[in-house]
User: Fold Cytosol aminopeptidase domain-containing protein from Paralvinella palmiformis.
Amino acid sequence: MVKLAISNNVTDAGFDGVVVVTNGPESLSPKFELLKSALIDYKKIDDSDEVAVIVCDKLPSKRLEQFKNEESTKTTVNYYRLSFKSVDVLWYYIALSSGCQSPLLVCSTHDLYPLAVRVACLGALHALYTPLEIREDLPSKKTKVNQLGLFGIDDAELKILQAIETGRIVYRDIGGSDPERMAAPRVADYVVDIFTGTCIKVEVISELAILEKKYPLLVAVNRAARNVKRHNARVIRLEYEGEGPIKQTLMLVGKGVTYDTGGADIKAGGVMAGMHRDKCGAAFVAGLFQTLSILKPKGLKVIGAMSMVRNSVGSECYVADELIVSRAGVRIRIGNTDAEGRMAMSDVVCEMKELAVGEVNPCLFTIATLTGHVIRAYGANYTAVVSNHPAVSSKVSQTLFEAGEKSGDPFEISTLRREDFALHKGKSEYEDLIQSNNKPSTLTDRGHQTPAAFIIMASGLDKHGRDSSAPLPYAHLDIAGSSGPFPGVPTGSPIVAFTHAYVLDRK
Ligand SMILES: [Zn+2]
Assistant:
């Protein structure tokens, strides 16, 4: 990642520009008097919300760059409701396009938003990411700036920023790289490489016979890719166990579809482009373990699984109407081969469910770029969380929502209803479940909620409801919108929110 430097002096000659993030120069504290007077003078000639590069003779670099968030001048309450993503966009336009090589970032604090400075720093770091393929192929473009200065940050805060940002780099590397650079076997190599010698345990399951036995639904998706060695499926297991008595166990399953052609129900009409991003759920899992490996939270155990598979098309591909029996013994009728994400994850969730019996205070999660429907419902910037009843009781959605609000990595809460289960119930004596209807999720009522109901029933989690003898909290996170734009760089969502909800502040 970019070299970081702490400075407590805005006239530090080691920097060639100062970037100020503020909701108006008046809000800057007296310690920024030099910047404040320059910005207030500038405001007399330009009071717009536009970003600005200002010449400031009192700074060694003579360059002062200001940006205000678009909501800031409208109402104080909305200040810093902006996520790190919008800081990123503004940062890009001012710091990078103006040619700064050593910018110093100065953020004003805000009583209502205690994490305002952290959010702004994460925005700047996001903008300074260089994609893996560029780092590998074009070394001269490896970094965007020589260093980033952070004003008024202490060492503990620096460690948090580094832990989150390196986690997001892992996520962006896996999620954003093309379907060959991050085909399943190469994702496994990358993950083994980064965690060798750390406190994270890694196990890669690559043998087809074992995958067939353990994950029959995932293997159905893998059928069209199994004769192409470099595209073969992998399940990558990760484990972290913090010091001290374990108080909570998080069990994460990420969708890692390295490329989604749609399969036999092929994505026609130009909607296939961008489908190398269908591995961002698995990228999240690897990224979070990177963050864990630095922060080493006490009393927390995390078990992760990355379901890496390519949804190819060809003579071997699975097709609609096939009956496949899941690991949990549920007979499933395929409805649409483009609903492969739930196939990749359900048996892995089933395995987690079996493991959960022996764990302390377990909570299961699936994280997936699952549906277009979530974007229709909430727009492109929000992670949807759908909890089962035990997770509702333990306020999982609420915890993530609140962490997301304060850390600029926002969530929307969705709920499971009886219709979601009804849609997937078998329609004849041949099958217990229907995997999917044959319309796109965007044209299906409750299109991003129903997949959670399917995963619950296909994995046997429906035997662990609120009224069972062994309730198991489970939350499904749909990141199809929040994982980032294509073309563009993956955001790393929801690593920031998840870290604030479950990793930081553990004693
Ligand atoms: Zn699909």
About this structure: Residues 260, 262, 311, 338, 340 surround zinc ion (CB under 6 Å). The domain at 4-153 is CATH 3.40.220.10 (Leucine Aminopeptidase, subunit E; domain 1). The chain has two domains: 4-153, 165-189+233-308+316-503.
